[in-house]
Amino acid sequence: MAPQPIIRRSVDAAALADNASHGLLDRLVALQAGHRVPHLCLTGGRIANRVYGSLAALVPNSALDPTRLELWWGDERFLPTDDPDRNAGPTLGILAGEFPLTASRTHPMPAADGVLDNAASAATYAKELGDTAFDICLLGMGPDGHVASIFPDHPSFEHSTQTVIGVNDAPKPPAQRISLTVEALNRSREVWYLVSGADKAPAVARALEGDPTIPGGVVRGRERTIWWLDQAAAAKLASFDCSW
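Given the sequence above, the corresponding structure tokens read:
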């Protein structure tokens, strides 16, 4: 049985980004202090990028060695490398603008300007990923309960023996994507959800109830799952202790 989720509620999105970034920094420093090179899986989206911006500002005066981080991505929009709608480009721009990253330890998903389609590109990323289990996997969640590029009532949510898949006909544009599967995400030691906004509140409640019909209801960390929420996203959690 998965451990009981931990819920951290902040007053608004700005406070969520600040609190989550401090929590992430502390956890990464602790992992490195244990002589580990942490494997961190990143997500895209506005609230995630606010967390990365806050984290980037904290790192220069901290004990974190950013060159000793393995960075992965949970999903990607299958677009050309320089397309601003890709997840990796904006994230790397935020992080690398403040501290050094090691190229060999930075693992963005393939882009659409290569010679492979998204299914073949997913297979390439799966080989690179191997049997990696993330120390921390960051995820957002949509109003429909989707995580990464795994959508409810969609083939991406079907059980898979693969760790990375090409996603077609996604209900949210762009239609073509690459995503880790539920099975791969659930190998993570810790899953941290970053969710902001009143439109997410119903899905947050369903996910925390373990609704098996939405991806957010089934993706959990093996050791710990933390939900970083603002008050709007936590509005329907009266039965949960949501204090920060």
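The longest helix spans residues 13-33. Try to locate this feature in the token string yourself.
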